[in-house]
Design a protein that fits this description.
Elements: E1 3-7, E2 10-11, E3 14-15, H1 17-27, E4 33-40, H2 44-51, E5 58-63, H3 72-82, E6 88-92, H4 95-108, E7 112-116, E8 118-119, E9 124-129, E10 134-139, E11 146-150, E12 165-168, E13 199-203, H5 214-223, E14 226-229, H6 231-235, E15 256-260, H7 266-269, E16 277-282, H8 289-292, E17 295-298, H9 301-312
Parallel strand pairs: 1-4, 1-6, 4-5, 5-12, 6-11, 7-11, 13-14, 13-15, 15-16, 16-17
Antiparallel strand pairs: 2-3, 8-9, 9-10
The structure holds flavin-adenine dinucleotide.
Flavin-adenine dinucleotide binds at residues 204-206, 230-233, 244-249, 261-263, 265, 267-268, 271, 281-284, 287, 300-302.
Length: 313
């Protein structure tokens, strides 16, 4: 019997949509029972959202003051303890779970499988290698627990409308004292999060300066979009590091991706492979970005972007 435990990712009482994408991946495995574990000080709001996801059998809440702020070091022994009743432990391939899942795997004495993009069976998965330029099929040992991260860009979230049972559980795990929460400092932009935004506008080297980058932010705000950047724009200091899209930045899958003054290097394209509609604005008609773009606008970004903004009203 395949029993999959998914660790819910949440902040401020809101379940991250990445969790629903993990459920979508787990639900592809025939006959699998899918449960979600919510670690929090007060798990009620998140548990209600998790229980509404279709395909979820049970939501386990692990309430503990130590879980008020998610720390991988603190969560890992608790997840490992809960995993006793499961064959698989999944988490989304977000920054947090890339920290958590290897710790869980180490505690369980198994290797961690990264970036599942398709489940062929309970123990056979497909995942990208070489920055997404090749896909491999990998088979995990069926006599060991599978601890894995799920590539969220490869899955659509499952719909709501489910009614899973919610059960409070306590876990017997020794929590580390070497790591504790001090403070959270996050930029408050009011803009959608780059990794989960339905629309993203990104600027490249051609934007020319940090001051000019306002033109990208302006268009993003008009569209209600998240803001991204190429590595060249980040390296030049035009945009913050956490906005980088691509192989060494964020892998995203928005409905709409607008690439402004970005050439379309393979390392950038890796990050937007699963975007639904790509719009490219570039003054070079031969730019490689036009090979992947659904809509291409050839011209100077400093003319086109203000025109677009004006047209959007
Ligand atoms: P450029 O390649 O310089 O392109 C600028 C584009 O703007 C050109 O096509 C030009 O025609 C156009 N342009 C110029 N002026 C205008 C104008 N006025 N109006 C309209 N268009 C104009 N890159 C990433 O983005 N993300 C990554 O995660 C990443 N990881 C990497 C990892 C490795 C190991 C390596 C080696 C590289 C990585 N890179 C990454 C870098 C990548 O190879 C490219 O160098 C980078 O993506 C180029 O950024 P760009 O398109 O903004 O700049």
């Amino acid at each position: 019997m395949t029993r999959i435990l998914i660790v819910a990712e949440h902040t401020g009482g809101k379940l991250n949509p990445a969790t629903a994408k993990c459920v979508a991946c787990a639900s592809k495995i025939e006959g699998a029972e899918v449960d979600i574990a919510v670690f929090a000080a007060d798990a009620s709001a998140v548990a209600t959202q998790a229980a509404a996801l279709q395909g979820v059998k049970k939501v386990l809440t692990v309430e503990n003051a130590a879980n008020a702020e998610p720390l991988a070091a603190v969560l890992a022994p608790q997840v490992a303890a809960l995993a006793a009743n499961y064959t698989h432990v999944f988490g989304p391939s977000t920054t947090f779970d890339k920290d958590l899942m290897p710790r869980v795997a180490a505690l369980l004495g198994v290797g961690q499988l990264s970036d599942i993009m398709a489940a062929e069976s309970a123990y056979k998965f497909r995942r990208p290698i070489y920055a997404g330029n090749a896909i491999v099929s990998v088979e995990a040992a069926a006599d060991k627990k599978v601890v894995a991260t799920v590539r969220v860009a490869s899955f659509q979230p499952v719909a709501e409308g489910g009614s899973a049972a919610v059960e409070a559980v306590s876990v017997n795990a020794e929590l580390p004292t070497h790591t504790r929460f001090i403070e959270r400092s996050a930029a408050k932009t009011g803009r959608p999060d780059l990794q989960t935004a339905a629309k993203v506008v990104s600027g490249g080297r051609a934007v020319g300066s940090a001051d000019n980058f306002k033109i990208i932010v302006g268009l993003a705000d008009k569209l209600g979009a998240g803001v991204g950047a190429s590595r060249a724009a980040v390296d030049a200091g035009y945009a913050a590091n956490d906005l980088q899209v691509g192989q060494t930045g964020k892998i995203i899958a928005p409905e709409l991706y607008v690439a402004v003054g970005i050439s379309g290097a393979i390392q950038h394209l890796t990050g937007i492979k699963d975007a639904r509609t790509i719009v490219a604005i570039n003054k070079d008609p031969e730019a490689p970005i036009f090979e992947v773009a659904d809509i291409g606008l050839v011209g100077d970004l400093f003319t086109i972007v203000p025109e677009l903004e004006k047209a959007l009203g």
